[in-house]
Amino acid sequence: MTTAEREAPRTDPEQTPSLLVSVVIPCLNEAINIEQCVRAARAALDAGALSGEVLVVDNGSTDGSAELAQAAGARVIHEPSRGYGSAYLAGFAAARGELIVMADADLTYDFAEIPRFVERLQAGAQLVMGDRMDNIKPGAMPWLHRYIGNPLLTGLLNIFFRTGVSDAHCGMRALRADVLETLDLRTTGMEFASEMVIRAAKENLRIDEVAIEYHPRGGESKLSSFRDGWRHLRFLLVHSPTHLFIVPGTVLAGLGAVILALVGSGLAFFGRSWGVHAELGGALLLVVGTQVVALGLCAHAYGTYFMGFKDPWFDRMRARFSLEHGLLLGGLLMLVGGAIGIYIVVSWASDGFGSLSYEELAVVATSLFIVGIQIFFSSFLLSILGLRRR
Known about the structure:
By secondary structure, the chain is an alpha/beta fold. It is 55% helix and 10% strand. It has two domains: 3-238, Spore Coat Polysaccharide Biosynthesis Protein SpsA, Chain A, CATH 3.90.550; 241-388, no CATH class.
């Protein structure tokens, strides 16, 4: 399926019968399992008296999976671009149902649970997540995934985006088709699972959970623990500029400012006095931290103005502070740093340009001037990005 086909309208009321449920199953060389999955999904729809279809997205299989799925009663579409997300994007575009249930083709999920997911959607949920973590059958999930990978990534996702889900990477989930435009899903790899939850949380969609069992997989796993884990982690970080930039940048800048103030004042701490080398370390932390915060603010602005992200914190800051505030703060710091620098040069000249004995003060002046420049021009960059606003 081409990009143009993906972006075409999902349904044509004059040509397509109305269906309640589309069960979408991505498939890549699952000849061992696919027939059983299709029949189980079809049986679940029939048992729940749900009008629906079983849609298998063949992602370039070479073992006859597509033919087996079609023979078992599925509607098969082909998506040549490899990737978990690519398969689901193609499946969503072709789905005819008002409600979409997602599940893998590896027999790890019980398709008989489909009616429970549908009930939650009909009760008002917009995204329903499966929760496997309390019902994992022996041998179904490697200990690295069960006790480290999934809890760590789910915990970070909940900290960053306050989703409140228990199992962010469960492959069995369901959503209303009418929220797909709102979610605006784009990723093509395994991080697609995280993107769906993050976008749902940012759009304040109602997310419910259903406790399900997780069974040992049939056939060979295609998951790469470290590669796919990194892709998930990378996705979480780049979609949370606050935690990637603002928090560490603020910590670095604050620590650097404290070191500069203490060393510059000549006060002793940790039982000793500190000289210009410690002050240089503080200056480095202050400058680097300020730059990281500036990058974070620009990332927030880009996400808000160009990608449609919603961020209450950034919206509050944008409403409270303007370009002129940044220019004033940056100009003031440059003025103070420049004034101290002039004082040092004048004092040095009055001493006949002899030995320069203002090293600590020179570090403070230089730091203030650099930070002022960073704030001044970063404010202009934020203002340029803000030209996108309507």
